[in-house]
Amino acid sequence: MTTVTMAGSPVFDRRESEARSYCRSFPITFTSAQNATLTDINGRTYIDFLAGCSSLNYGHNDPDMKAALIDYIVHDGVAHGLDMQTEAKAAFIETFERLILKPRGMDHKIMFTGPTGTNAVEAAMKLARKVTGRQTIIAFTNGFHGMTLGALGATGNEAKRAGAGGAWLGDIARMPYEGAFGPEADTLAQIETLLDNPSSGYDAPAAFIVEPVQGEGGLNAASKTWMQGIARLAKKHEALLIVDDIQAGLGRTGSFFSFDDFGIEPDLIPLAKSLSGMGLPFAALLIRSEHDIWKPAEHNGTFRGNNHAFVTARVALEKFWSDGAFAAVVRDKAHYLEKRLDAIRVHVAGSRLKGRGMMRGIDVGSGDLAAMICAECFRNGLIIETSGAEDEVVKVLAPLTIPMKQFAAGLDILENAVVAAVSPNRIAAE
Ligand SMILES: Cc1ncc(COP(=O)(O)O)c(C=O)c1O
What we know:
Elements: H1 11-15, H2 22-25, E1 30-34, E2 37-40, E3 45-48, H3 51-54, H4 63-74, H5 87-101, E4 109-112, H6 117-132, E5 137-140, H7 149-154, H8 158-162, E6 172-175, H9 187-196, E7 207-210, E8 213-214, E9 220-221, H10 224-236, E10 240-243, E11 268-271, E12 284-287, H11 307-321, H12 325-345, E13 352-356, E14 359-363, H13 367-379, E15 382-383, E16 385-387, E17 393-396, H14 404-422, H15 424-429
Parallel strand pairs: 3-15, 5-6, 5-7, 7-10
Antiparallel strand pairs: 1-2, 2-3, 4-12, 8-9, 11-12, 13-14, 14-17, 16-17
Helix pairs in contact: 4-11, 5-11, 12-14, 13-14
């Protein structure tokens, strides 16, 4: 018998590990979700500006993906098949090849890794080392690449790194991301100088791993010029370029890949989060074909290639990426979001607009203020989270499919919360 009170079940406190995270900001129990709306056990609805941390770019329970998945299950479609060949897998790869790879002239192979982003990153880091015979991977300040030890090594966040309990997170060389030393510093030139100097102490790198927009690290968006510079440095030093598009890809910035307009050709591209289209666990590594030197089963795993995800991911590609219509709508919404956040930002002295596309936020200068704003949003029916080194960025990650009216309503809640959080009355009252 399940005990559920108005606030939820005590079982979470009693039995769920202390490692739990997002549920601490939103301590209620949800029952259902549709597009950008979440409903709790009391029937209260919330606007979702978190979207599974960009895993639900197409919203909750897209009707077409849901129908295709139900049909697949009803007809006893293979649910688990290790990495064996299935009809669902063939259909996904063919669709990905036709709609994503071929139009971009990409010869990349698709490697299905374990179902989380961090596993796709692990595979990328291992493969880069195997291809080059080198150890060091260059990662960037504020970068976030996952929680397994290799990916955690490439992750900058102190609190997350503490989870390793002192285990070695090595063979990573940290370099400054664009803007890390302020707007004037030329980080590309600094990196180049260090790598060119044979006495700098930097070993020749196996790869550079970089996010075009740092999702967890505070919505730092690299410019086209900077990303091209990193691609050039990777070539110059015969290192592979790993572009981690796990959070910024799949339409989040207004195009399928967040680097589509950058004129760069990454060697390895980890994808996860919204790849399944419906929030199902599913990750892949795109590998430039000349680098696909894995021996059979060298990066194995039981859950590689989730057949249910193959079904929904194929529908997502066909529905949203067969032509440019969806991308155009996303770009319009991104434009609206930018305008709204720019106006909201004015309420907080010294605040800054961060990010790109539909991956935007406001750096309010303090984690405490950002937390206060998000808590006030939650009280008023909006699910929204923070990011950044000090959790100082209030981060809008609405589903790309959110209806405009609901998007505006969510931003109204955010604006009111910002005004309330900075009002002297509120500070006095607390
Ligand atoms: C850029 C980036 N890479 C990797 C990961 C890790 O993905 P996962 O949490 O699915 O392991 C994340 C997760 O937030 C991410 O944002």
